[in-house]
Every structure is written in C-alpha cells, then in structure tokens.
Amino acid sequence: MEIRIELPAVRLGVVEADELAVSPSGGELQAVVDEACDRRRKEFTLENLAEAEPIHAVRAMFRHWGMDPSKYRPSSEALLRRVVQGKGLYRVSNVVDIGNLGSVETGWPYGCYDQEKITAPIVFRPGQPGERYERVGKQVWHLRGRPVLADSEGPFGSPISDSTRSMITETTRSVLVVIYAPLRASTRSLDEAVTQLATRLREFARAGDVRRDRIG
C-alpha cells in the first residue's frame, strides 16, 4: 500500500500481511519479548534514555514537525520508559506484541492497523483543525498540528497514539504495520527492521502473503 509523505525528516517502513491469525501471544513469542526487555533494562536508565541515539533521533524528528517530544511522547519512548521501569510491555495480542517488540528493539514508533478498516489513498501529514479520533485505551484526541496517518475517511494512526477505528482485534485478518523511522536512519537498519517484522508475522501470527516496502 503506497503512502504519501507530507512531513519532513521521516522515512517509513511498511509491511502488509494477509491471512494471519490474531491471538494471545504464545510462550515462544513471550520469551523473545522478555529477553528484549531484559536487554533494554540493563542498557538504559530513565536518566540516559533520552540521549540514546535512536530516541534522540526520534525526538529530533518530532521537533522538525513542531512537536515537543517531552509533552507528546513518541510511542517508542513511552514503551521503553515502561520497560526501563520494570513494568514490561503490555500483552495485547501476537500482532500488537510483535509491533511493540520491534519498537523496543529499534527505538522507533511502530503502528499496527487493521487493513480492512483503511481505505486508500494514505498520507502521512499534519492533523488539520477540527480533526480528532478516539485513541486506543484513552479519550478523544484532538489532532490539529500533530503527525497523523490518514486515509480517505480521515486520520487513523500516529507515531504517538493510534485510533480505535483501525486497531487490531481478534477478527483482524489483514494488517498494515508502519515503522516511523528518522530520515537519518540508515537504509540497512530500516530494511533489517522491516525484514524482522515480516519474519515474525509469519512465525508468530501464521501470516500468509507478506509484502514489504520502504518509503522515503
């Protein structure tokens, strides 16, 4: 699925996967998640996390968009802060857990969306006056000036917090996963993240047809 970018300083990794099965994460995936969290707890503290290279780069990306990353925290940093505090990652489903795992490993925001709830064309752009959506697990979020993914019906996702409209549920069979990477991230590192994501969707969610792309 093609995504047009209208914001600076960003490149996107994109994975589409069909014929998958959404379920609670099994023991093997949970073990991979726990191992990644253990590594990050040993590597970072709350005091030095913001200066870690990938987090610093994501924060710089947010500033390019006119966003204060301390006020509107990137989802990847929010997850890593939770991990460093010893709280672990939320256990949602195999697909969402795979996305959160990749985000903790790379330091970049990931967004997981039910592709059947999205209608092309898709654009990554600033939110417009009056736009809003219901956030996953939270209240209505006003989107003016904030980075959003939008389709023909309006915004549905963001590297800060996603919408309930496109959230992954147990009935989801086709997903779109977007990696929001800083423009200065190397092509190799983004390609590796996309490949790892595709591999895990096949291994842990039994995805059939999986397609990968890099934009920007």
- The secondary-structure class comes to alpha+beta
- CATH architecture heading: 3-Layer(bba) Sandwich
Strand content: 15-25%
Shape: globular
Number of strands: 10
Indicate the low-confidence ranges by residue numbers: none
Biggest β-sheet strands, sense, barrel? 4 strands, mixed
Give the SSE string.
EEHHHHEEEEEEEHE
Number of domains: 1
What is the C-level CATH assignment? Alpha Beta
Mean pLDDT: 96
Name of the CATH superfamily? Phenylalanyl-trna Synthetase, Chain B, domain 3
Description:
This protein is α+β, with helices and mostly antiparallel strands and 216 residues long. It has one domain: Phenylalanyl-trna Synthetase, Chain B, domain 3 (Phenylalanyl-tRNA Synthetase, Chain B, domain 3), CATH 3.50.40.10. The protein is 33% helix and 24% strand. The chain has 5 helices and 10 strands. It has helices at residues 27-43, 53-64, 75-84, 94-106, 187-205, and strands at 3-5, 10-18, 110-114, 122-126, 132-134, 140-142, 147-151, 154-157, 174-182, 210-215. A 4-stranded mixed beta sheet has the order 1-4-7-8, with no helix packed on it. A hairpin with a 2-residue loop joins β7 (147-151) and β8 (154-157). α4 runs antiparallel to α5 (187-205). The mean pLDDT is 96.
Provide the fold topology.
Blueprint: E1 3-5, E2 10-18, H1 27-43, H2 53-64, H3 75-84, H4 94-106, E3 110-114, E4 122-126, E5 132-134, E6 140-142, E7 147-151, E8 154-157, E9 174-182, H5 187-205, E10 210-215
Parallel strand pairs: 1-4
Antiparallel strand pairs: 2-9, 2-10, 3-9, 4-7, 5-6, 7-8
